[in-house]
Amino acid sequence: MTIPQRMDSEAELDEALVTPNAADVETLAQLPGDVLVVGAGGKMGPTLATRVRRTANRAGLERRIIAASRFSDTASRRALEREGIETIACDLTDRAQIAALPSCEHVLYLAGRKFGTTDRSDLTWFTNTIVPALVAERFSSSRLVVFSTGNVYPLVPPTGPGSVETDPPQPVGEYAQSCLGRERVVEYASHERGTRALLFRLNYAVDLRYGTLVDIARRVQSGEEIDLTVGWLNAIWQGDANSYALRSLSLCASPAAVLNVTGPERISVREVATLFGRELEKPVRFRGTEGPLALLSDASRCMKLLGPPEVPLERLLAWVVHWVRIGGASLNKPTHFEVADGRY
Per-domain residue ranges for the chain? Predict the structure, then answer.
């Protein structure tokens, strides 16, 4: 993909998110079989499913690409179908509907619950543990990339390296604990049934309509204070995360593999907010000082196996500034990156 200087519309943004690169094409060409994207109606699912479809088309592959979700947003479903993606309305809390999903050699599992976890912890635990257990059982013979999060790691001092895949999990709060539960049930399936799986520990993906960097830029633009409780973070362009997810199908293994997915930089909230303030010509207001800990992942293994992100941080920051300046669309779904106690 030719990296644009800026994004001026959602059409341009979506095109950048779904356009495959040469590595995507090479990987899918070496993996015979159909692809099912479970939880394809969320923030990341539509562009990931479309990228897989576009990749198969570019490689000249006759593949079924299937998207399963509740599809409460009918427009999203119609857009997927226009791309040549088969869609299935599926309530993942219903065992019978999971059992009825078509068999596929490759499964990208994106379903999960985060926001509102303090109000319905029971639903969070069911969604993040029971549902993936059922999916892993149904697709025990498939390659299974399961989206997880860096939240399963402990918060670490920002002066040292971020968490690596071999570090023991120490999740903070019920959301993070339930995410570790999701990983454990997939690991069980991998050990007991030989399911080839990969735990895709992502933090944080940035679409210009949402994401950590977007949260900071919009707060600067509106004159809100920037909370420094968690003063450092990781971020990655969602298009790169889409590419890594597709290519992670080639890394699935039994026992389940683990992969940290994020950008290579440790990003200072203060420095990024100051940059945004300068570019947006807005004064920046901070609240508090940087705390001693942050949620930081070391993605060196991802870079070694799959290469660096196509979109460097400098370009991503420029995209975010321009998008916020022109009043680009927002999903109004804050990331709560500043939360240190696990209560989202």
Answer: 10-207+235-264+295-311
